[in-house]
């Protein structure tokens, strides 16, 4: 069977657009249970506070995430999103988001390589859009890991010409990350530097993601949320 990566719907990657109507019904039902987000829409839509902002979202693709993503787009944001977990995507929800709100790269049962491929796509706005997002909403730290490890590898490559070596780690996941970074260096040796330049705040949902950020902080300067409040 061909990989789902080979299936394209409106520039996105998800299971089946025919599932969208079912997803819309579920999302509408969940909106009633999230009055704070609905109140934000009611009050702020006329002001479009996120107009012109590009936001990458990596969350479990559930109805709750869909209401959040719809709120971001209703407030003017351009959103690209992926799942933070290989098996947490609700396929009918992903189809509804793609049909109505945002670019989606998610389906239930992704392989690890497909998962990281989707993360790459969610970060990529193309060469005409300064390369990447202005803001990140992350769950588990995968977006942040890829960007910061990519920037570190680019610095090493610029100084020494050395490419990342996937065989240098025993972690299956990190082998994939290093492979992605290595292959990207060949076509754009400054990609992650450019991502860091356009990126302003980072939001992390989980304790595990915060722990990962704390580990990264020991080696790489993080872009801190305080930058946009100073």
TrEMBL record:
InterPro entries: Adenosylhomocyst_ase-like_sf, Adenosylhomocysteinase-like, S-Ado-L-homoCys_hydrolase_CS. GO terms for cellular component: cytosol. It comes from the Eukaryota. SMART domains: AdoHcyase (SM00996). One of its GO terms (biological process) is S-adenosylmethionine cycle. GO terms for molecular function: adenosylhomocysteinase activity. Adenosylhomocysteine is a competitive inhibitor of S-adenosyl-L-methionine-dependent methyl transferase reactions; therefore adenosylhomocysteinase may play a key role in the control of methylations via regulation of the intracellular concentration of adenosylhomocysteine. This is Adenosylhomocysteinase. It comes from Dipteronia sinensis.
